[in-house]
Each structure stands twice: as structure tokens, then as C-alpha cells.
Fold these 4 entries.
Entry 1:
Amino acid sequence: MSNEYDVVVVGGGPAGYPCAIRAAQLGFKTACIDAWLNRDNTPAFGGTCLNAGCIPSKALLESSELYHRMQHEAAAHGIGAGKLALDIAKMQARKDAVSKQLTGGIKQLFAANKVTGLQGYGKLLGNGQVEFTSHDGKTETLKAKHIVIATGSEPVNLKIAPFDGERIVDSWGALDFSEVPKTLGVIGAGVIGVELGSVWNRLGAKTVILEALPTFLPMVDQQIAKESLRHFTKQGLDIRLGAKVLSAKAGKKNVTVEYEIGGEKKTETFDKLIVAVGRRPYTKDLGADVAGVALDERGFVKVDAHYKTSAPGVYAVGDVIGGAMLAHKGIEEGVALAEQLAGHHTQVNYNAVPSVIYTMPEVAWVGLSEEQAKEKGHEVKIGTGPFAANGRAKAMEQAAGSIKIIADAKSDRILGVHMVGPYVSELLAEAVLALEFAATCEDIALTMHGHPTLSENFHEAVLLVDGRAVHAVNKVKK
């Protein structure tokens, strides 16, 4: 097989493999190199997302939610389940099977689109060359007109709480517990920390989340963030804000964590400790310096608006270039780049990037929060629709939460949507579309929504912005 390509993508995660597929669809001879190895040393495309992040975590979140609902909601439906049995091994096996089905699907997509999938390590050599080393140690040099860096990110490893893979674990390790810990500590109350804490809390672990920041979910509208915190606390999650971890020491049976809160030093002991304080770009052994690819002070690859790096013919997309570290953001960047290489005019709208926390209730948002909108000088008008008034949510026994619409008072244009409630991850698409098409509250108000549906609450929240709701008490806030 010839080692000359039009496009070589280094990295087969959510940014890399869609870039490779779209490039091949557009007529480029394309190869995609990926180094991922699972616990059993089997290679797999899909990166962290499909193998150790988005997909396996959602599988466990779904399983733990079912367990929690059977315990706390079934009786209200007139269903008596008796004593519930929890089989962690079977739950984990299902999680792994879901991931393997999807990673196997990428191989099929590569074959269907004539992408050459190479499993091993890619290193930039400069002058349009990439060194590929397979997992069995064989090396060859590939030549390409266009090289795309899509190597993703990795968990931040704290010096004060280093991973040991047993007692102190990263987000991947937190998905592989063979039993429910009696006590669980989590450093970091961001998306990953809250999701993983929720999984094991629902399954019976007494869970404490330590967050150094004084506010909960600062990237979310604070009305919605505070409401979310109330729901999580009610479920038993012990979230301690303003708690700065000083050290974590693993013993044979537990982990001792020292932290400071309110000027006072405290100590807690846990069976397991999850460190979820963010992710950093993965550029180890990439050869960026040799190829003349500039990195910023935090290690992210520098790119321009068209994902070009400082090296001719070399581009970068996904987590490795910074911004929101989200799989769907990486997908859109990879596809946009492939189309730009083919001469198409396309771009990613970074003002309409959806974000979701898959807890119960879920938290989801897009666009500006009320605080951000005011900081940018907007005169805002607000509408907040509680799920307590939604017939479908009541029927589901999941009426906690609300949807908040932030709009510009002068133009009526929707600036942001922040929500907490049942399946708001699915409702979010309408909000993203509204921002993408620069919709006004009037546009959504005149759009018919099915009854009874959860989506009605989005409609109701928009009507509440201007005091036009008929199924809720109007409280116009300007």
C-alpha cells in the first residue's frame, strides 16, 4: 500500500475520525492514526469519548438512574419491586459492551468511506511527513499534503493527589470500580466530578465532592446552578464549595484527604478518591517542536480561525486547541476543517455550543447566562418555566427543575437558554437551533409544541418572558 496521502489525521477521537471520514467523502486519500489501547491492550478508535469518557459514563449513569428510580419512584407508580439486587459486574459488562459496539462501528465507517485506519503512534517529522509506529513496533513514514493534529486531552494529574490507579483514580478509573465504595471523595465539582459522583452516590456510596471555587457551576446561569445544587444535595451528594485540597495520601485500605475550608483545615478519609479537576492537551511525543508547530503557555496547539498551525500544511482540531473540551465541538471542527480543505466555505458557531451534565435531573445550557448577558451590556428580559407545571413531567414523576430563557429586551432575540430537569439534554437541541437561526422569543412563541411533552416547557418559558403564558403564573422580570 502506498504511504502517500492527501490527508493524514493523527488522533482517532471525536475530532479526528469524523475529520478523516469527511475528508475521504470529499475525495481525499485519507489515513487516520490512533494510539488508544484499552485495559486489555486491545486497540480501538473513538478516543477517550467512546472508550473512557462520554459513552461508558452515560451507560453507568443510565444504569444507576434506573436503580435509583426503582428505589425512590416505583412505589409512586404503584409498582412494588421488593428488595433490589445490584450486580456491579453485569453493569460494568454492559457498559463495556456499549463502548465496543460503537468503537467497532468506526472501523466499519472507515471501511465504507475508504479511510485507512492505522492503530499505533503518529509523530510529526516536518516537511509533510508523519512517522507511524504500530503497536507491534513496526515503523514507516507517511507523506501527506495536509496533516491534522487531533490528539485530544488527558486528565490533569495533581501533584498533591497523584493517581495510583487503585485508591486515587482519574475519570477512567472511576468508571471501572468492581464494587461500590462505602465512602467516596471527589476533587472537583465540574461536569465530570458531578456526573461520576452521581453514579456512585445513587448506587450507595456516601459521596463528598470538594470544590475549590466558592460558586457551584460558575459557567451555568446562577439561578439554574443554585437550583441544581439543591436537587443534588437533596439526593445525598455532599458538595462542599470553597474547599481547597492540600494533600491526599493513599494507604492500603483508604485515602486520607486534607483540605482547607473557611480558613479551617480539615481531614476526611475515603475508600476511593476521584480527581476530576479538568483536562490538559495531549501532545506527548507528537514532534510539534520538530515540525515547527507552536504551542501556547498551557500546551495547546496554536491555530488561526481556519485551524492552521504555525507549520505549513499542518492543522489542529478538538481538545488539543482548547476552548470547550466537548466531543461535539471536536466533531464540528473536524468536519469543518475537512470541508475547508476541499474549498468549501464553512465555520463553527462558537456562540451556540451546547453543554450537558448527565445527572438526574440533567443540567443543560447554550449561549449566555443572565450574568454574562448583562456583563456584555444587554438589557435582558427573563422567563423561567418550572417543570412542576408540566403534565408530562408530572406523569413521569420527574417534575423537578426549570427552563430559563435569557433574551435581549430591545431586539427580542434569544441570547441563552439554561435548564435543569428531566431529559433537558434532548430539549437543548431546540435552544441551539434557536440561537443558530437568531430566533426571537416571538418566533418560538408562534411555534406549536406537542401536548403533553417536556418540550412544552420550553415554549412556556418563552411565553413567560413577555408575560404571555396561559399555563403558568406570569412574573415578568426585566
Note: The chain has a mean pLDDT of 96.
Entry 2:
Amino acid sequence: MNILGLEASTSSAKAVIYSTEEGVIKVITSPYGEDISDVVSQDADGMYNALINCAREALTGEALDIHGISITTTWHSLLFLDNGRQPIGRIYTWADTSPAETVKRYRADGRFSSWFYHKTGCGIHSTYPIWKCMHLKETDPSMLHRIHYISSQQEYIFEKLTGEGVVSTTVASGTGFFNIHTLKWDEELLDMAGINLNTLSSIKEPEYKAPLCKEAADIMGLPEGIPVILGGADGALNQIGAGGMGEGIMTLSVGTSGALRMATSEPILPHYPSTWCYYLAEGKRIAGAATAGAGNCVNWFRNKWQYGFKELEHMIKSADIKKVDDAPFFMPFLYGERCPGWNDERLGGFLDIKGSHDIGQLYYAVLEGILFNLYHCYSILTDIMAEPDEIRISGGITHSDLWLSMAADMFEKDMVTSEIEHASILGGIALALKSLGYMDSLAEFTPNLGKVVKPRAGMANFYKKRFDRYIELYND
């Protein structure tokens, strides 16, 4: 069986051809042009056309029957449509923080914040589409009268491919309009935002499929009627693609941003809004946290000081433990804070810094601060659910033995790398295989695992001492 996997991310389009006999056969990636995506927003048709062009290129020269098409997109995107279901403006991505002032006011009400959080699994933060709508309602109410439908990156792609306007449970759960307990659009929240239920798409399971329409089929050079699987959001599909549908497996992604996730049979939320909980698949939820600063902070540091990664790592490796212990602390909030504080306006930078500190110590603090932000989320999450038996780690961090070792030491867990480069899109392919009857359960999709990085003896106390100081600085 051969599946064409399509992924639209924040910055690029991707197409993968996957065979159940051979695995990944071909990967085509195409970064969006600046006119298509500026990270904060995207041109809907430009994004879709880039995705279709990737698919067409992947299929060129391949004499294969394609049995299904899967879709992977980002979480928390928002697109308004007119009465002809055409885009009004651009897609707002998770990175859009324009509602920050409105969000700040609502978040200040502790009772309301707790009510919203425990109903939706989402924090009060600019990331979520509901708050972009709330901001619009307060700042430009006339705009609401032009909006006939609310869509997203996933919905727009699926509708262009099949003609059907539906949304997956997974994507819906990241909007803020969705009740994480009933798995339905929440009428109280819709009333609050001034949104009519008919404005939103009907909700379907991620395995839902519809036939490929003639127009899209002709463009890609495929037969009309091939099943297109609705799929879900990249974070959820990463969990599936990394083999994390079973109990006790945490996925930890440290790429441009950071995230940690675990599958759970029921909604898991701490008392105080800090982590999140969305729908995954097969009746399961996914509890976790996302951070705004990770590889983007590393790139910021490298670009400012004009050093290469190898040079910077050598400076840390050549330093003794006393010099590392004396390093400053880095707050990785250069791009605001998502979890655990949900503070769009929080600033980042170095603290406890002295004139004697050198470039190596500063760079060490950056790597450590990114992990401390993630570990802070991890400590909250594992207070309300069992610690994982295993952490499967992915992203740019896997290219740094030093950073991987720091993560293993800090979390006191084996860090298991994966040989899979495209876990999210493979999660979408796993959904397609189940939808088409090739598998009975998503847990059957098991990736090849890579090297295991073990914690070093004696380092746990070192990081505990420094983490305690990080928390003091964080709470000041």
C-alpha cells in the first residue's frame, strides 16, 4: 500500500511517499516564499499551491499506485471565509500575538481563567483562535459581519482536495471553542465570542476520509476518488509517528520551539492553568506543554555573536564544572512565553550575569535555560500523571551530543532518539493506514529507534541546584 503524505507547516510544505513494504520512498520539501508566510500569517492559496506543487513533484517519475492521501497541518491556525467560502485576508498562525492586550485582561480574572482552562484544556493566550475572535469582537466588530465561516489551515486544504468543509477533533481541540470533555463545540464559549454554531465546520475523527475531487486530482496527476484522510495537527501526529500511543511514552521535541507530550485515556489538567490537554485519536487525549523559545533562541545567540555551533560547544566542553556552575541564567522568552505561564508579554534574557562571564558560559546558559523551561513544564505535568517510562526526543537537539546529554542529566531519564526524521507526517500516514484498513490500531505503528543517551552519574544534584535558582528568578 502506498500513501501520499502532505504536510503544511508554519514555514514550509512537504510531501512524502510512503510504502508499507519499503517505508519512506521520497521526500520533497519546499520552504514558503516570504509572500506566502511571514510566520505570523500565511496566504491560504499560496500555502495550498505550494503543498500541491510538492505533491506533484514527489509523484513525478514514480510509477506507483497511490491508495490514500493524508494531511498534517499546524495547530491553532485561523482563517475567515466569506459567504462563497473564499478567504477573507490571510491565515493567522499560532505565532500571531495581536490579541495580547485583550488576552491580558481576561487572564487577570483568576476565576474565569480557571473556568475556561478546565473546560477547554487551553490557556488564555493569543495562540488560540478564540482569543483572536474575541479581540476582533472588541476592536473591529464590523468585521464579524463579513465573516460567514471560520476555517483553518487543515480545513482549507481538505476542502480544496475534497469539496467537504469539516475539521478533525484533534485540530478543533486546539481552537478554544471546543469542550475537551464532551468533544463538541461549546455553546457557552461560542456565545461569549459572538460566534454562531453554523459558522464552524462539523467535527470528524482524524481517520475520517472523503474522495479526492476531480480538480485536485487533475492538478496532481492522480485518479479522481482516491481517499483523502482528514488527519490532524503536527504535535498530535508527532506522538503517533513516534510510536507514542501506548502508556508511559513521552515525546519531547526541541526544534524551533519546544514541546513535550503524553497520551492519556482521559483529560489531565493541573489546578492552575499551566500545561494543556487536547484530543489525540482513538478516544485518547494528549497532555503536554509547548514553549515558544528553543532553537530560535540558539539561532539568535549564534547570529548575534557570529560563532558556529561547533565552536560554541567546544567552549562549553573545554570548561571545568566550576566554570559551568558559575554560568549565568537564561530566560528563553525572547518570543514571549507559552507554557507554563501563558504570558505573551514576558521578556527573556540573561540574569545573574557578571563581567567575568565569557561566551562559552553564556551559550551554556542558553542551552540550559531552554531545557529548564521544558523541565519546569515536565515537573508540573508529572505532578498530576505518572512519570514516563521512556522519553523519545526529536528535533534539532538530536544533532548535539552535548545538549542531549544535558537533557538526560536534567530529566534523569534515558533520551531515546528516533531514526524517523518526519514523525508528524508519518503520524498522518499511520492514520491513513488505519483508515484504509491496513492496521487495527495506531499503536501498531512502531518506528525504528536510534541511540539512547543515558544520564550521567552525579549530575542530577548539579542541575537541581541550578534549577532551584532558575525558578527563583522566574518567579521574581
Note: DSSP finds 17 helices and 23 strands in the chain.
Entry 3:
Amino acid sequence: MPAGTGFPAVASPAPSLRRGACPSLATPMQTGDGLLVRLRPSRPGLTPGDYICLARLAADHGNGLLEVTARGNLQLRGLKAETVRRLAEGLDDAGIDLNRGVAVETPALSGLDPDEIADATKLATAIRAAIAGPLSMLRLAPKLAIVVDGGGRLSLADQVGDIRLDAVRRGEGQFWRLSIGGDARTAQPLAAVADGDAIPAVAILLRALDGMGPATRGRDLDAGALRSALAPMTVDADFPAVPAFPPSPVGRHTVGVRPVLGLGLPYGATDAATLERLMRGLAGLGEAEIRLSPHRALLVLGLAAGAIDAAAGLAEAAGYWTRADAPGNAIAVCAGARGCASGTFDTKAVADLLVSSAPELLDGSMTVHVSGCPKGCAHPKPATLALSGQAAGIGLVFDGRSDAAALSTLAPETIGRTMERLAALVRKTKSKGETVRQAIERLGAAAIADIVRQGRQ
């Protein structure tokens, strides 16, 4: 271990253990710390007692580590083949039912937010039923994701979906904007359909995916051919403006008259004892409901406005983030070498180093992606800055995915100094009102590469 770095030197990447399917109870995924299971509870909200049960199951049958993913799913780590079955039995005993099969995602506050255009829950339930019933013979990609976004404060506009249905309002009417292969900004629009045609329209897309083979994703489909197929049910070809991306779920929100407290898990992870302690405290404050949220967060609902401060205090004492501007909230981190055989360095130690050495870079305007290998599980989309584990070291990627060509390769012991220099340059050159992201994009790749070279002199 290099002196002063706090994390192991880069090792040669191990063979990938990532499967083509999402890790579920039926198909757990082998990782560096055992088997990993991803859970999607069918109830949008669970009680503190449910989370206490989940924490105990994680401790009894795994290594006690729990994660909330970027898409708002729950992961339990460190299981063994013989304990996965006991975990499933424990979930059944606790009455925690799970959604299985194709991921059909809705906003965390769907059905509760008076600002949403439509409650996405009903349509999502109908899509799941169609896939489990009349469309069950289709061969679909295991990682296929369908986003049903009714809008509202914490919409899913920034979530990538193979198929997207975004609620849009036109005059007194409401319909669904159907698109493929991206988030609300980048997906290719196909049609706008009425509620009654949404399921038949999705069926056309799913059959097209099936026809191209079980590895096909939304981005692989022929948008022109699908627009023609959907033409008979298209109600409006003049698509409205794409909605703005939502704010961070972390922090305090008012949804109608309902106070909501968003808790960020440090780099998306917690341990069973800490989670149980927090949930016992929340249970003592009132009838709380906890919802999983994208961006690795938990949303606390149901507490009286006067109890929110106490809830935030409990969460902060447990190490959770309660402010959107918490520096670590701007870093997307995978399990790294501690939890994944593909990881080449301790990603969380690097993330801590960024927080301590260059907090000015983490103003929330951009995501810094710290990935133990080029796969980029924690942040599949491009990031303004990415640190990616490679055979030769830690690659510094500008404005790209973790598997993109690196500007330079850094030794672990140089990361802190490099980021300190970049922060100093941004501070010196940033214009009034300019975000860190805007400043770095203006500086460009050449300036960042020059900073790396200076660190080697």
C-alpha cells in the first residue's frame, strides 16, 4: 500500500463476474464478497419495522451490507448459495413481496405528488401484468427497463429506459409520450398515445425487441419503423418540451402539504446495525413510511413537520446525508476492490479522498464517477469526470463513460494532489454564477491533461 494513500495500489483486473441478468433471488450474482441479490419491493413504501427485518436478514444471511442503487433498488451483499433460500423464506415470512421480471419503474412519490401529471402506478401495474400474462412468451433482455414517469418533483426524467412513457399534458388532456433508448432528453420519441392505447403501444415495442433476439435493447430498435407501426394510435406528433431533470432526492422537500425527508446513503451503502438503529429511531417519531428512491436515497414520509428535524438529526448521527449539497452526494461509486472481483482499487477510499482534498469540485452540478473497472456499473452514463480502474492504473476520463479513452493514467498516490490542482484552477478561473461543471467543460480536456502533467514534474 503506497504511503499516505489509504487504499491499495491498483491490481490487474480480475475476470468479469457480471452476468447478463440483474441479480435476483432466483439468479444471485457472484461478486468479490459473495453473492449479491437485488430486491424490488412491490409496495412503494415500507415501514421502519420492515427495514429492521431487512437489516436482520442481511446480517443473518449475508455480510450485513445493504445498498440502494442508482435506480432505487435494494441490494444485499455477501450471501452464500445456502443462505439465499433462507433469505427468500425470511422475506416471505415478513410479508415483503417483490416485483420480479422486467423492471418497470415509477417515481418514488408516484400517486402522492399533487404536481405530477399522472399517477404512473396504475399503468406500471398493467404493464407488469401484460408481461407476466399475454406477453409472457416474449424473449426479452434480462436488464430491460421500462420507465413510466408521471412527472412531479422527483420525476424519472434523468433515468435511462429501454422504453419510456412520460406523462405530458396538452390543454385539458393528458397522454403518454413514448420513446426508446435514453432519458427524457436523449431517448428517441416515437408517438404520443392516450391512456387506453398505452398497453397496446408498449406491446408493439416489446414484440419488436423479441423479434430481434433476447439481447436487444431499446437503443437497438428502428425508430422509423416503430413510428409507422404506432401511427394508427398516435394522437399528437408535436411533442412538448422535455421536462427538466429533477433535483436531488436528498434533503427536505414539501410535496403538497406533506413534508418529505430524503436521506442519502454514503456512496449508496449502509450496514445492518446502523440501518436498524436509524429505523428504530424513526419508528419512535411517528408512523413513518420509507420509500426507496433513485440516486441511492431513502425518502421518509408520514412524519409530522415538527418531527423532521429530529429525524434528520438521527440520520446525520448515523452517517447519512440529509443535504443535497453534501460533497459525497456528487460522487457515483461502485463497490470497488472490496466488494467486486472486477474492481482494481478501493473506490470508497478514493471517494473519501476527493471529499477531503477537493470538496469545491463537488458542488452538485456534475457527477464524478469513481469506478473500480471500465464497466461503470454505478454510473452507466457519461460523467464530466471519471476515475476508472484499468490494468495500468486509474484512468482519468473527461466527459465520457468509464470505458472511454482516458486523458491520463494516475497512480493512486497522485489522485488527491491532481484534484486539488484542478479545484484551484476552477476557483481561479470560474466566472460569477458559473457552476463547477460549466467551468470544467469550458477549460476542456487540454487544461485537465496539463494539470496531470504538472503533477508528474
Note: The two ends are 23 Å apart (CA to CA).
Entry 4:
Amino acid sequence: MAVRYQITGGTAAEISASVESGVRSGALPPDSALPPVRALAAALAVSPATVARAYQELRQRGLVATAGRHGTRVRPRPPVATRRAARYPTPGPGVRDLSRGQPDLRLLPPLGPHLARLADRIGPPTGYAPAGVLPELAEAARERLTADGVPVDGLTVTGGALDGIERLLAAHLRPGDPVAVEDPGWANLLDLVAALGLRPVAVPVDDDGPTEAGVRDALALGARALIVTSRAQNPTGAAVSADRAGALRALLAGRPDVLLVEDDHAAELARLPLHPLAGATPSWAFVRSVSKPYGPDLRLALLTGDETTVARVAGRMSVGPGWVSTLLQRLVLALWTDPATTELVTRAEESYQRRRAALIAALAGHGLTAHGRSGINVWLPVPDETSAVTALRDAGWAVAPGGLFRIGAPPAVRLTISPLDDAEIPALADAVAHALRPARPAGFTA
């Protein structure tokens, strides 16, 4: 077999359950290769059709992916709870971790003082009936979105950007529907699309966002939804430019069959201006998270869109969790209205811009072209991801392999600059250059 873990079972359901158990326990870690259908069928004394059905079920549930000659492999983030160490191995001692993609914890606003002030004026306990979107939060959100040129027809809040996107896709689409996604794109979103049983249609990305040709091709292939990152695209740092926004709006005009979803997860941390596509299709939604500027533990995102789309999301919230905690909403509102927090977010934005530009320039000094117009990541094309990641780890730097974010895009690595100090940038650029162009071994001498 292609893996050490012994898959068992005599039926398709038993075989798929055995694979899932291996994924859950960590015995089948991400990217593990599963045995070929015929090989596993012979080992288990079942028909190839039985194994094929098991693999099909696993694919439909987003646990595995099949990629031609590369065979069937466990997805990088399968939608089952796994042992944390199996999913996110900790870099060894002395290795600087630039692989996580999270904001600089040193630049996040302290929540304690705001929580203390809220405790003094929170009032009596709240029951079920009054819960929902706080009017004062809704008013502030409308002002902020309108200032960025986003129309606010309807408004609700969800438990983060991915929660909002999941509810949008579940409300509009059915398993098997094609969804246009950025390539390279947000790894969590690619895994969500797989977990929902949707079919991803790759849209190439350049520095100005999803390409016009890529979106046109995706629409021709019948994409029922298009998901676009407005700014600080993960992993490339792309940001939709004014010209690109105009071209995409023209492509989407008159497409009532397409759900347009925009993800502005960086929000106040994005230095570049917003060029929204909102309203380009009759069914649309714009999602803005508060996690990047104010803290990953603040699981709240604003979601605006056409009346029907917002009503569907709000309705699904009402029959599920009901609402996002009003305590959390009050905390977000307190952060929005605090001048010291606004100043800190501005400093964070400037810091990310400075470090990102410095790393890109340092890599350019070695003849390497990296990308990162906005956000906290730098995307660097490489000849071979495995050798680049391994060489950098041996040199003391942990980076994310591009395979986590790609469908058909060329190989690359992602470097998150948020943990990086300014003084470390030259050494990192030197290490990257050496990893991609290792010294040639000395030849024989007489």
C-alpha cells in the first residue's frame, strides 16, 4: 500500500469510515497518498467498484482530493477534527515561523480595558427575544461601509468571514454546483468549498485581483458563484484595482444566475482603497471581518448584500445559532469608537506595509520576483515547493508551501511578514536566495 496506515473494511461505507478514522487520529496526515483503487481492492478482497465508491464519498465530503497521476490524497485541511499536532506541526527549536498567516499579535489592541468598561455598563441580563444585530452596531457599520462605496441594502452579522461565506453558499447552491474561486486562493475557503460538495473552478489571480479572462472562462463553464477577495488577498497580497473592478462589473452585468461574494477580510488594515463589485449582479454579498485588525478571537463579520441574500443568511442564523453574541457586538463597537485603537490599527497598517515592501525589495535584490501589494503575506514563485520549504526550514525559517493554496497555479511559497522584525529581513532574503539557488557542489580536481 502507498501508506503505512492499514485501511480496513468490506463495504464502501466501512472503507470510507476507516480512512476517516485514520485522518482523525493523525495516522493519515494531510497530503498522505491513498492506495490506488485496484491495489486497495486486492488487499481488502473487494471489488474495485467498492473502493471507488468509498473514495467518491470521501471526495464529496472534502476529505480527499484526486489529482490525475498524483493519485488520491488527504486534503491539506480535511473537514474533520484531527489531532492538532498532525495538522499544524510545530517548527523545531530556533526556527522562525512565517507560515501561519496570522496578524502581528504585538499590534492588536488590548481587549481587557474595553471589557472592563463594558462590564460597568452592560445592564441587566438579556433574554432570547431582544437578541440580534444591535441597532448601534448596525448604524456604525452602515457608516463605515458607505464611506468605502459599498451599498448597504440589508445588513446582518455572522461569526466571522468564513461563517458568512459558508451560509451564503449553502443558501444559494447545491452539492455539485461549480464555484469560481481564486487560484491561488485562501486555503480555508478551498477546503470549505470541498466540504460543501461544490466544484471549484479556478480563476487565475494577478496583482490586480482575479483576471478578466479567468472570470470570463469560469462563467462560460457555468459557475454559479464567484468569490473575490477585495484586498490583502491570501496568499498573494493582490488587491482589486479600479480598472479590474470596472472590467469585472461589465462581465457580471446581467448575470442573475451568479452569486457574487466579496471578502474584505483585511478591512482597516488594507492601505489600498477599496474598489467594490457590490451590486454587479442581482444576488450579491459583501463580507467584512474584524479579526485581522482587532484580533482573531473576535469572531464577527459584517455581511451586507441584496435584500433576498441577506434575508437568507439571517434566516439560517435564526434556525441555527440565532445571533452573534451581543457582548461581542458591543466590544467591537467599543473598539471602533476608541481613538487609541484607531491609532494602533493605523500603526499596524503602516508596519505591515513597510515590512512587506522591504522584504519584496530585498528579494528583488537577489533577482527574485515576489508579490504582495497589500496585507500580511508575500507570495514567492519557486521551481519546487518541497525543496524550497525544506531548505528554508534547515536554514531556520518555516514558510507555507504554496500547494495549500493552489489548484492549478504554478508552485510558490507564502511568507507571512507579521512575525518578522525589520532587522531580520536581509537575513531572510539571503536564506531564500540560497534555498532557491543552492551552491553547486565542487567538481573533481586532479
Note: The chain has a mean pLDDT of 91.
